[in-house]
Amino acid sequence: MTLCNPKVWIDQAQRDGCAVAAFNANTAEQIQAVVLAAEAEAAPAIIQVSHNAALYFGSGNATLGLRYFAALGTIAAQSVSVPIALHLDHATETEVMQAIALGFTSVMFDGDGYALEDNIAVTRKLTRLAHDNDVCMEAEIGAVPKPGDAQIDEHDLELTDPDEAQAFIEATEIDTLAIALGSVHGVKDKHLGIDLARLQQIRARVAVPLVLHGSSGVTDDYIAQGIKLGLSKINIATQLNKAFTLAVRDVLAQDDRLVDPRKYLTPARAAQIDVVRERLRFVGAAGRAELIP
Ligand code: G3H
Ligand code: 13P
Ligand code: ZN
Fold first, then answer.
1. Which residue(s) pair with 107 in the sheet?
2. pLDDT tens digits for 67-79?
3. Which of 8, 9, 18, 246 is the most core-located residue (most Cβ within 10 A)?
4. What is the tens place of the pLDDT at every residue in 205-243?
5. Atom in ligand 2 nearest the alpha carbon of residue 89
6. Where exactly are the structural domains of the chain?
7. Which tens digits make up the pLDDT trace of 3-25?
8. Which ligand is nearest the CA of 240, by number?
9. Which residue among 47, 184, 238 has the greatest number of ligand 2 atoms within 8 angstroms of its CB, and so is best to mutate?
10. Which atom of ligand 2 is nearest to 185's Cα?
11. 163-203 pLDDT, tens per residue?
């Protein structure tokens, strides 16, 4: 299929009490793993590309990286019969505009570091551009820390303020809202909880689907409860990277004469397919491809 705008599926998942899963990709094999797993589970799925992934794939040139990912994402989506979206994750204003022009079907402006009024002004402008191009628009209020951030200590986390979230939605008209509930990006083992009471307070004021970032470090029990309470898009990156890299490490450890990358990237792709399939089932996305018009 051609790349799809995921808004309809995320809205539908919200109504049905399940979620859509969004998988970060840094390599061509990781993109292939997402679409092959989605096909195997008859699930819609989102491939996401971060600013850092675009920089990596463009060898330091994020614009070139976005062009590569637009081409790869388009071909990957066309190679399967389930709906696939290509999302730009944690991006700057310029990157969002470039991604929309390149055919991404979903974008996230990360206003972390902007004053609230500036975040609102840029997000509103980008939302109009996104909607004019049939692209789903995500933005963030409150910040989920990234590796290296100063406030990474879980006791210092600044969670999303429900009133601010409501005002942000009314002012920007975005399609999905990323909120900070206590998760942290880049955590390699699942041990964190999220603030479910705060999620309920935000849900009571905000009608749009809510997005969980940094899901890899959150226990499945919390994610499952969060989905029931209105988290409708679950972002997954580190959990995939971990499976992919452990598989490479295993193969290389068995043969220090091995030089053909296909010999270790094939098991890495297979390991990631397993994790993506399991996550699609976990969030309740398996079998839902046929519900999408
Ligand atoms: O939320 C972002 C993902 O964890 C991707 O991380 O910026 O290192 O690509 P990254
Ligand atoms: P993790 O790396 O913790 O899975 O976070 C993914 C994410 O939030 C991508 O936007
Ligand atoms: Zn994120």
1. 88, 137
2. 999 999 999 999 9
3. 9
4. 999 999 999 999 999 999 999 999 999 999 999 999 999
5. 10
6. 7-244+272-291
7. 999 999 999 999 999 999 999 99
8. 2
9. 238
10. 3
11. 999 999 999 999 999 999 999 999 999 999 999 999 999 99
Q: Identify which ligand lies nearest to the alpha carbon of 51.
A: 1
Is the confidence at residue 157, as pLDDT, over 80?
no
CA of 178 to the centre of ligand 3 (A): 8
263 alpha carbon – ligand 1 mean position (Å)? 26
From the CA of 217, give the closest atom in ligand 2: 3
Banded model confidence at residue 158, pLDDT cuts 50, 70, 90? confident
Question: Is 26 near ligand 2, meaning CB less than 6 Å away?
Answer: no
CA-closest residue to ligand 2 atom 8: 213
CA 238, 114, 121: angle at the middle one, nearest 5?
A: 115
> In this predicted model, what pLDDT tens digit does every residue of 20-36 receive, in sequence order?
999 999 999 999 999 99
CATH 3.20.20.70, applies to 7-244+272-291:
yes
Answer whether 51 contacts ligand 2 (Cβ < 6 A): no
